[in-house]
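User: Sequence in, structure out. Go.
Assistant: Echoing your sequence, followed by the structure tokens.
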Amino acid sequence: MGVDMASMFGVKPASLALLQHLNGSVLSNKDVCWRWRSSAAGQSKPISWPLVCGLMLFCLGVVSLFTGHVASDLDWYSQRLVKQRLFFKLDGSGKGPIDIWKSENGKHFYGCSKRSRKFPHAVHERSSNGYLLIAASGGLNQQRTGISDAVVVARILNATLVVPELDHNSYWKDNSDFANIFDVNWFISYLVKDVTVVKRVPEKFMRSMGKNPYSMRVPRKSPPEYYLDQVQPILKRRHVLQLTKFDYRLANDIDEELQKLRCRANFHALRFTKPIQELGQKLVTRMREMAKRFIAVHLRFEPDMLAFSGCYFGGGDKERYELGEIRKRWETLPVRYHLL
């Protein structure tokens, strides 16, 4: 009768099972759920694997639509998370650069310029083979490279390096000296263990020569052996030697310790003067106030590079003539460039 009453009031068999079992005992919720799941499992259809694969491909396609956008903003989000610690620390006490090697990610890298203990100390000025003068050449970046190479060459020659002379004869006619661009005292003190550097040749040596120092130009990318065989004997005999147009005059493939010295000179010893650093920091601060990200581009819009490019920039016959004269310096330049 209970079954009939349940049917009369529309009670479902699953609910009825909670009240009465086939043998008259009452079932628990656990037994009912187990029986219902068993029944449902017995009636389930086999999984359609093509349908599953299709859904997976669809999901991957949707994700790929957003991959480019996420990747492009990854750097911005990372800077927000680390509070731009890898760039400039902006706080109430002031604005200034921080040491990247002391940042949180610095532990994953190491510098390549640290001198080893086996690297001998520099010889004293009086014990050196003589004084080496360097006439840098090119733009500021080329001169910086030349100065770094000069430090290594002085070490190879066992010479005392005189603070290099910057190029005053380039297209821009810049009359700045070394001390106007770089911190000369820092340059000398930082390299004291590697190379002896002085600001000028002692007067007694200049008077004893009675004329300008002996000058020579070495081939580009010369190895250390060339300096030892061809340059060092002249330095020992003359005591004062000047290497002119010193740009890229040292080979790239040199001893590891000498390469470390080259890095120390370039990235540590050559430090801009305080006014230049302050001006640079002011520019960076203003740029960061205008945009979260920016990039500095060197257009290299200078006569020699314009001539070498072989392009016409709309300056008429005068431009064609002037750039044509400059192009004559390069014998290997294609003929058609000379005709532009």
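User: And one key feature?
Assistant: Residues 1-42, 68-94, 336-340 have pLDDT under 50 and may be disordered.
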